[in-house]
Amino acid sequence: MSTRGLDLPDTEFTRKLTGTLFGIMTWDQLGRFWQQIDPAAGWYLYAVGEPPPTEPADAEHVQKFMADLDRLLREEHREDYCSIVYADDLDRPTFIKIYDPNHLGSACGSSKNVVLPGWVMSQVPPIELTPSWVVPQSRKRWWQGFLASLR
Description:
The chain has four helices and seven strands; from the N terminus they run ββαβαβαβββα. The protein has helices spanning 12-18, 27-36, 59-76, 137-149; strands at residues 2-3, 6-7, 22-24, 44-47, 85-87, 95-98, 119-122. It has one domain (2-149). The protein is of the alpha+beta class.
């Protein structure tokens, strides 16, 4: 499957990744969005560039991930709008991709080269994605800190 610069296998995960997603435009909308997600719905939490998880996270860690990521996005995406979180369904999502505020490129897809998100929440198992950029050590430390909190 080749989609605007991405060469991906044809899987349910990649079809969701490259399919139609709806943007969360405001910070208020993002806050309401997190609240309606069922953390016990079998979410795989994936940091692009890291090994993908083989099992869904438990509800406690899904809640922690959403809270930690929300804080990171609000601190580092210093805009009056959100527009870096996308979901397959804004009321009952099964797939959410979140762009890293420090590596947005053309998140909206208007460029020839698609930028991969920084993180994905998915109810289908993810496949390993290799970003075309070097993931900064600060992001790796953030993710490792989050994973350490799972133990």
